[in-house]
Specification:
mainly alpha; Arc Repressor Mutant, subunit A; Tetracycline Repressor, domain 2; HTH-type_TetR-like_transc_reg; transcription; repressor
């Protein structure tokens, strides 16, 4: 059991090093030697766990998505007062609002083009995104049933729009910078949810 735990710890150590190096240098300029050096281990040890750079990258993607899922699970396990409250907390975990998430999401932007050329990474990306979409759809359906969300809202369409909103804010915060500051993208997300949960005004009678 201890050997298995050590094995997994080593793999996580290498994955963390991959995140750091890709975040600093970009995916194209990252080598197994760079990752080994950052992790403080030999290239041979890295190759013992990952026989190719492609295998290492796939594990890095899986590691990154797992951490995002853990943050969402922590929100679900914690106290929430409403579906809106859960959505506020859950979607905020997806934004690059601290150094750790900035690094992870910078790497995510580097990985996306690579995923288009790697069927396994593309599968992981699509499955993770589909899982997120399903969770948002379910939450929005509950909000409609309980009268928290206006009845004219389409949970599936709104879930897709919400993911696109989060991804767009992430992209601009990391790549564009001003005016997409951390505070600005947090406010933009809140504004999007405010509009989503606001009932349309009744037409005025003449």
């Amino acid at each position: 059991m201890a050997r298995t735990a050590d094995h997994e710890q080593r793999r996580r150590q290498v994955a963390e090093a991959l995140m750091a190096v890709v975040g600093e240098r970009g995916l194209a300029r990252t080598t197994l030697a760079d990752v080994a050096d950052h992790a403080g281990v030999s290239v041979g040890l890295v190759q013992r766990y990952f026989r190719s750079k492609a295998q290492l990258l796939r594990f890095g993607v899986e590691h990154m998505y797992h951490r995002a899922e853990q943050r969402l699970q922590e929100v679900s396990d914690g106290p929430v007062s409403s579906v809106r409250d859960w959505l506020d907390r859950a979607t905020e975990t997806l934004l690059p609002l601290d150094d750790e998430r900035v690094r992870e999401l910078t790497v995510w932007l580097e990985f996306l083009p690579a995923a288009l050329a790697d069927p396994e990474m593309l599968r992981m990306h699509r499955e993770t995104t589909r899982t997120l979409a399903d969770a948002l759809i379910e939450a929005l359906e509950i909000a409609v049933r309980e009268g928290e969300l206006p009845a004219d809202r389409d949970p599936r369409a709104e879930a897709v729009a919400l993911i696109a909103c989060v991804d767009g804010l992430t992209l601009h915060h990391i790549v564009t910078a001003e005016p997409f500051t951390a505070e600005a993208i947090r406010t933009a997300l809140t504004t999007h949810l405010d509009r989503l949960f606001t009932a349309p005004e009744s037409p005025r009678t003449p």
